[in-house]
């Protein structure tokens, strides 16, 4: 899980017209509302196209002024990142259309089966309207959360939980579709399971050692079983892990991708969640991005134009905090290590010739 950069800014006024207001998610949402009827929003001048090197990309079909809201995407799967499992500060409501930050433990609604202390809701309404989703993960969490955390560490536990929540959303999407054929994505963008299937990612990007380790993880904890009733083969789950690793976003309290970086630098803050967004995942990275991104209080990812974007230009975010990795070598090393690609953005291309002895283009790709 890696994606997403951030940074605070005093940006120009954001203009957007989401189909539902931000407050629409402040009340509990049912599973039917979650599939296809969330307040996702895509700017009418944003289109998808294909770049021969980078693959899918987001592009402006007409000029988009700085400050314009370009995309509001809802998480298909989201988990809290808990620094301290003992105090469990920083939890989010487990209703996947609410995701609001939870207050003191005493006011939280917890699972009646006590599956995992990281699972809690802000109200009984939020819990009760979300049971089909939670029931899918509940037994798995109860059985495997503690052993995975203990043996594999927090990162792998979080990654595994995102995979389970992706499968839980797929499960709910299927049963909801059967009940109500009208429930369809609101536009042509693939924001349901088809969006997850379209995500890039491949075992070929990873070292043999990494793939072996994930293969073992799938075999022990993530393959089809009584506590995880999905219909994917172990190879398909492995592929899903590669997709998740190439496309998930870290959620940070402040914007990522303000460029040029403000002086003094303002970082994006501490990561508090991780999520997969089917449409936002189409944004490629640039070290000189023209969009910044930040989650809202419901875990939706908001892309905003940080400069005027001309018709035909690619709309890019920064995958990392630009205040942390400043020179070319540091940026490239970070992208190779965490995101498994060599950046082809204009800034890297223009800075590359200035580097001589540390020129990355002359170095073989490392097995990390
Ligand atoms: C989150 S996905 C972005 C969408 C992706 N292009 C697709 O086809 O779905 C991240 C992947 O896009 C490609 N990518 C993104 N930014 C890039 C860049 N600046 N240079 C080269 N490849 C990039 C890499 O393959 C990376 O693993």
Contiguous low-pLDDT stretches (5 residues minimum) are 3-37, 180-186, 356-368
- What is the total number of structural domains? 2
| Order of strands across the main sheet | 1-4-11-10
Q: Could you say which structural class the secondary elements and strand pairing correspond to?
A: alpha+beta
Q: Major sheet: size, sense and barrel closure?
A: 4 strands, antiparallel
InterPro entries: H3K4_H4K5_MeTrfase, SET_dom, SET_dom_sf
Domain SET: 44-320
Protein name: SET domain-containing protein
Explained architecture:
The chain is α+β, with helices and mostly antiparallel strands. It folds into two domains: 22-74 and 279-362, Beta-clip-like (Beta Complex); 77-247, no CATH class. It has helices spanning 31-37, 124-128, 131-152, 154-179, 193-197, 208-222, 234-247, 328-339, 346-351; strands at residues 41-42, 46-51, 55-60, 69-73, 77-80, 109-110, 120-121, 249-251, 273-276, 291-295, 301-305. The strands form four sheets. It has a four-stranded antiparallel sheet, with no helix packed on it. Strands 5-9-8 form a three-stranded antiparallel sheet, covered by helices on one side. Bound molecules: S-adenosylmethionine (SAM). S-adenosylmethionine (SAM) is lined by residues 3, 53-57, 199-200, 246-247, 281-282, 284-286, 339-341, 343-345.
